[in-house]
Amino acid sequence: MANPIFDYEAIVIGSGFGGSISFCRLAQKWGSKVLLLERGRHYPMGSFARSPKQISDSFWSVEGDAVDRPRHIQNKNLRGLFDIRNYKKMDAVISAGLGGGSLIYANVFLEPPEQVFEQGWPTSLDKATLAPYYQVAKQVLGARPVPSWQNEERRKIVRTELFQEFAAHENRSSKLADICVFFGNDYNYKGSDSPIPIGLQEKNRYGATQTSCTYCGECDVGCNTHSKNTLDLNYIHAGEHQHGGRVLTDCQAEKIVPLNQHGDDDSSASGEFGYRIEFQNFASGKLESLKTRRVVVSAGTFGSNELLLRCRDVHRSLPKLSEQLGRWFSGNGDFLSFAIEGKKDADPNYGPVITQYTDYNLFDRFNRQQAFVLEDASYPASLAWYIEGIFPTSTLRKLIRALKALIEWLKKYLSNGVWNGTLGFSLHEILKDDLSSKSVVMLCMGLDHGDGTLTLNADNRIDLDWPQDTSMSLYQAILAAGERFKKFVKSNWFFPLPTWDLPIRHNVTVHPLGGCILADSPDKGVVSGHPEQRGQAFGYQGLYVVDGSILPSAVGANPVATISATAEWIAEGITGIKPDASLGV
């Protein structure tokens, strides 16, 4: 009996780094017979939320998904950019939108050391194997350090120098990070040391219009100038506009079913006759389905694990998936903390979110129990105004300064009857030395134990059990470094996120990994790390998982580079085409 007629040669579920790379590479081979499904929306230039009302609606919480979220967004039926999750001992912030996590990440492309691959990874997959794929992804994403400010004062980033000074004080190395931010084609893609002027626009090497970084600090809330090299401006753009691949946004995959030789649903099949994908189309409000020869699941760590767990344990459509599904979850050691009102200038509202990393036993003097990197961070100026308004000591200081300004006005008026110039003086007194200008945000990530477990809750939606204590030595080392930073800048306060305070004691991750890990066999993981079956789910043919969920451990460094490299490696295995940075453009 002939195979059924497929709607597509391949359907990719999710448009983060794994999904976008898969979509582009598969579209290079099969063109319009490749479909990308993304649950979130497309965000054109200038469309990210900025007003209070827009921000309040910029969260993800669709009706019926039964995920525990903050009360103010729970059950609001929102389809915005930020998806905030609350789990046992671990909260998470992930993204929904065309481009996935690239829309809100901090741009860093950082390869981990080879020691990371020596524990938990498949025997045939190591740093040397992935090296050429790292290089290709780095070139596509245009990853380079921030331009020098030696001859252009406007590009100076004060906090970068502050973190470099602290690293020297600690006898640690601080290096400028390669970041996926646009400073002009010649700078990003041709290795020139001359960026185009700030705010100038040009088409990137793949044909998408971008703006040379404006140093606004808004990377993590969606870049309205398209100065970030987000995936919709390179991999997705090339896959759709150059190779004819099809993109459907507002569509969330709900079910994967193998087909038999007659083209009918058959849960006993192993994928040799293709699959049917069932998905919710939010735009039409309908449940739709399509048939495809192969499937690439790239819905992110929470999305991919939930989809596959439900297919195995609820729908029973993929019963052969490994029993290891959901195991070895990692938060990549993410830890966020603050040093407030120091005596050294920080200016955290200017420049790309991250510019440097300071090494603590990850690259040098490797120590698996306490290996992490310390990175600087910026945040939008609009948030600085908000902080000025709500922080109690800041408000008191402003009242005292306002009183001082009033006294000066009265003295001047009573002595000569003149009051002009008072407004400018008052504004200066009230706004000088604002809380943000001398405060520091510290981002850390490291090698946690990666021993969390993802399961389904009573509503058959993803849940997480995070055994925090096993990674406590890492968190203690991070906290100790933060306390030393506080003393270095002579700050009044150092504190981690409020969620870390007792009795809550929650981590927050923006880099969830694991659950569908690469392995040598199904008793150790979910997808194959063998060169001949790259990323293919054990027990199934033509079913792949390609995203952060397949990383077998924390990588310590920002994981985008490693997710991208493994995605390029898997895509080459599927298509047989050796990848290069041109994307076929």
UniProtKB/TrEMBL annotation:
GO MF term list: cholesterol oxidase activity; flavin adenine dinucleotide binding; steroid Delta-isomerase activity
Pfam families in the record: GMC_oxred_C (PF05199), GMC_oxred_N (PF00732)
Protein name: Cholesterol oxidase
EC numbers: 1.1.3.6, 5.3.3.1
PANTHER family per record: CHOLESTEROL OXIDASE, FAD-DEPENDENT OXIDOREDUCTASE 2 FAD BINDING DOMAIN-CONTAINING PROTEIN
Cofactor(s) of this protein: FAD
Family to which this protein belongs: Belongs to the GMC oxidoreductase family.
Pathway: Steroid metabolism; cholesterol degradation
Species this protein is from: Methylomonas denitrificans
